[in-house]
Amino acid sequence: MTSADDLTVQAAGCVLWRRSPVGGELEICLVHRPKYDDWSHPKGKLKRGEDPLAGALREVLEETGHSAEPGAQLPTVRYPANGRPKEVRYWAAEAGPGAFAPNAEVDRLLWLSPTAARARLTQPRDRQLVNALLESLRLA
């Protein structure tokens, strides 16, 4: 017998941020996924038995080329995806060293101000994560 938990797709990601190398203001990283033609925070499905935070950091590295220093846990986002419930756990994470290289999963990356990031995000549910990041950094 399967429970609802068995059917729920488990994923994790980060709201990746940095201080602008130019003016020092906060910038948020968004990735473009050609498969969905959307802009989102770096995230992905967890591997079987994978710790959610470890999965979130792995996805950030795979999708952005950057290592990340995790901070506060942000709200979990739940929504239906392909007829199944999906649960994505998020953390605030400061971008570390690295460089983006386009790949089949992510073809573009942008560093944007919080206001521009909110406007660019495809899914309204992802916009609340920008606010949660600012609150976690005490910038709201």
Helical segment count: 4
Largest sheet: 7 strands, mixed
Number of strands: 7
Q: Any guess at the CATH architecture? A: Alpha-Beta Complex
In terms of structural class, how would the helical and strand content be classed?
alpha+beta
Poorly predicted residue ranges:
none
Question: What report would you give on this structure?
Answer:
With 140 residues, the protein is of the alpha+beta class. The protein has a single domain, classed as Alpha-Beta Complex (Nucleoside Triphosphate Pyrophosphohydrolase), CATH 3.90.79.10. The protein is 26% helix and 44% strand. The protein contains 4 helices and 7 strands. The chain has helices at residues 4-7, 52-64, 114-120, 124-136, and strands at residues 9-19, 26-33, 38-40, 43-45, 66-81, 84-98, 108-112. Strands 1, 2, 3, 4, 5, 6 and 7 form a 7-stranded mixed beta sheet that branches. β1 (9-19) and β2 (26-33) form a beta hairpin. α3 runs antiparallel to α4 (124-136). The chain is globular and about 45 Å long. It starts with a helix and ends with a helix. The model has no long low-confidence stretch (mean pLDDT 94).
